[in-house]
Amino acid sequence: MIFYFSLQTSVGLTKKRQVFCNMNRRQNCEGMNRASISKPQLLCLLLLEGILFFSAEGTSKHHVPRLKLSYKDLLLSNSCIPFLGSAEGLDFQTLLLDEERGHLLLGAKDHIFLLSLVDLNKNGKKIFWPAAKEKVDLCKLAGKDAHTECANFIRVLQPYNKTHVYACGTGAFHPVCGYIDLGTHKEVI
């Protein structure tokens, strides 16, 4: 049986070294003394080699999506409802799907949107959460762009419990966090 071991040289190059071994007679192993490899280690080595062989075989195949649709196809199939949002360029960053209450929360620039999963554009709620004016002024003094950097970009929307969501924003480079009370029942928004 032939084993290959990778050895790291002082230059950083990896060299493969062949070790010949008779499984029945350990003392006849060339390039390896009796204490260098035990049966459990050998079993692990063979198992690892098999895993690597089969996983390498799977990576050669190209991953092909089951279904390919263009944006136009989605609109024509009536299975896509674009969110119109606001004309302010809100820079959406984070999403939280609340299937239990039928809501989608969107974190954006200075806003958190609470949207209905039935129709994203119908009766959505909007929470305005800007950075404090003092923090925006400090941000501007630091040389940051007032429109693209000195705002409260919502980065974290995390379920806290059955009624609340934990939300965090950049706060014009002074991070802020808070809790949003979503209520206990599925409300129609």
TrEMBL record:
Gene Ontology, cellular component aspect: extracellular space; plasma membrane
Tell me where the transmembrane regions lie.
Answer: none
**To which species is this protein native?**
Laticauda laticaudata (Blue-ringed sea krait)
Q: Which UniProt keywords apply?
A: Glycoprotein
* GO terms assigned for molecular function: chemorepellent activity; semaphorin receptor binding
Xref: InterPro entries: Semap_dom, Semap_dom_sf, Semaphorin, WD40/YVTN_repeat-like_dom_sf
Per the UniProt entry, what are the Gene Ontology biological process annotations, in alphabetical order?
Answer: axon guidance; neural crest cell migration; positive regulation of cell migration; semaphorin-plexin signaling pathway
Q: What is this protein called?
A: Sema domain-containing protein
Q: Where in this chain does the record put each Sema domain? A: 66-189
